[in-house]
């Protein structure tokens, strides 16, 4: 490299393909779905963490000898008798399980729709488009 310059990279896989209005709509839809998927995945993780907290709480409540325990509802704590607290924990766990199932179904549906769009866009644009997460 006596000249100090690098040779230009060859881009054999890239093609000059015109982006039509329909292509742009597909790209925009993919972007919206990608954002939605990230939000769903974040909520899924948060719900799973909350479920773990409730599992730990259920174990702790079983070990308590006191008649009343503080239980957080929203931003406030209320005193519940032991049986009511255990019942409330089980009810909250069931609600989270339903929400996790719903989120899982939504994540699968969005992922499938994104896969279809990926196939169509990669078929037309090849390596000239990157739809993978970085």
From TrEMBL:
It comes from Coemansia thaxteri. Binds specifically to cytosolic chaperonin (c-CPN) and transfers target proteins to it. Binds to nascent polypeptide chain and promotes folding in an environment in which there are many competing pathways for nonnative proteins. One of its GO terms (biological process) is protein folding. One of its GO terms (molecular function) is unfolded protein binding. Belongs to the prefoldin subunit beta family. Heterohexamer of two PFD-alpha type and four PFD-beta type subunits. GO terms for cellular component: cytoplasm; prefoldin complex. Residues 30-57 form a coiled coil. This is Prefoldin subunit 4. It holds the Pfam family Prefoldin_2. Signal peptide: none annotated. InterPro entries: PFD_beta-like, PFDN4, Prefoldin. Keywords: Chaperone, Coiled coil. It comes from the Eukaryota.
